[in-house]
């Protein structure tokens, strides 16, 4: 289980980016983090990844503290960040050096097939479209079978059609080993399509406003009435998160827990 216990981050310039953020995320759960600008979404992800240490609080994975990059935790950024001197296949297999050559080839071939790029195995990153490059990045991140995969708006620079295609590829790859996914996004549709739970953040300082469980079965029908109802629920929570007069449901729940004995 991934546990964040009252995690906060204050930068040297005095900006309070994240305040007392607490959440428990089950193994295999897909959690989307959504909120307005300045609500600490990327700060939260970087803290979990060990790229930017929290100022206070604790982050643990299966009881082990996460204070630096960890082999069980992978991350995908907005840009694919492929190594230009390696082929597509070698980019995907980059983190599999501990496997034998036949095992590495088999796992890379399976990942390429899953993302529909078997014919691009020997291609160079410069020869790929933006969507293809991001598919390679997804395959590279999941082929090492991390326990937790963090995604920082990985589809935001892509057109709507390509974005939907990649969402499907991501779920297809996830279904094999079911790691925990923590996805930062501005796209409510994307959050509802992918997530088991959506965390709505509140800005300045960044903190959890409300957590919403998504009970829709997969694959999810974007045109269904239930999907639209769920979207409206999230949009309403987003609107309320920007209203400074609105109380934090998450804070109220935490206070209630603290009073229980």
Plain-language structure description:
The protein is 36% helix and 23% strand. By secondary structure, the protein is an alpha/beta fold. The strands form two sheets. It has a six-stranded mixed beta sheet with strand order 6-7-8-3-9-10, sandwiched between helices. It has a four-stranded antiparallel beta sheet with strand order 2-1-4-5, with helices on one face. β1 and β2 form a beta hairpin. α3 (101-114) crosses α4, α4 (130-143) runs parallel beside α5 (160-177) and α6 (188-194) crosses α7. The longest helix has 18 residues, at 160-177. The two termini are 25 Å apart.
Salient structural properties:
single chain, 261 residues, alpha/beta, Rossmann fold, 4-stranded antiparallel sheet, globular
Helix/strand-derived class?
alpha/beta
SSE topology string:
EEEHEEEHHHEHEHEEHH
Overall 3D form: globular
CATH superfamily membership of the domain at 2-82 and 146-224 and 232-247, which one?
P-loop containing nucleotide triphosphate hydrolases
Q: Helical segment tally?
A: 8
In short:
With 261 residues, the protein is an alpha/beta fold. Helix content is 36%, strand content 23%. The protein has a domain at 2-82 and 146-224 and 232-247: P-loop containing nucleotide triphosphate hydrolases (Rossmann fold, 3-Layer(aba) Sandwich), CATH 3.40.50.
């Amino acid at each position: 289980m991934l546990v964040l216990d009252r995690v906060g981050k204050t930068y040297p310039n005095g900006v309070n980016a994240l305040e007392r953020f607490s959440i428990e995320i089950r193994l295999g759960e897909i959690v989307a983090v959504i909120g307005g600008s300045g609500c600490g979404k990327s700060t939260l992800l970087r803290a979990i990844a060990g790229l930017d240490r929290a100022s206070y609080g604790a982050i643990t994975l299966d009881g082990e503290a996460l204070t630096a990059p960890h082999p069980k935790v992978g991350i995908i950024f907005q840009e694919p960040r492929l190594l230009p001197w390696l082929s597509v296949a070698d980019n995907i297999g980059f983190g599999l050096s501990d496997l034998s050559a036949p095992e590495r080839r088999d796992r890379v071939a399976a990942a390429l097939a899953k993302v529909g790029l078997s014919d691009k195995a020997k291609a160079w990153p410069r020869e790929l479209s933006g969507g293809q490059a991001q598919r390679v990045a997804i395959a590279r991140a999941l082929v090492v079978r991390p326990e937790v995969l963090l995604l920082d708006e990985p589809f935001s620079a892509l057109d709507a059609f390509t974005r939907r295609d990649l969402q499907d590829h991501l779920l297809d790859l996830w279904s094999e080993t079911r790691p925990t996914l923590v996805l930062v996004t501005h796209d409510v549709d994307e959050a509802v399509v992918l997530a088991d739970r959506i965390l709505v953040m509140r800005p300045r300082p960044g903190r959890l406003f409300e957590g919403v469980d998504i009970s829709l079965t997969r694959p999810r029908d974007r045109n269904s009435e239930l999907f639209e109802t769920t979207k409206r629920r999230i949009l309403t929570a987003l609107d309320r998160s920007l209203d400074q007069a609105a109380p934090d449901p998450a804070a109220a729940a935490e206070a209630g827990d603290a009073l229980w004995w």
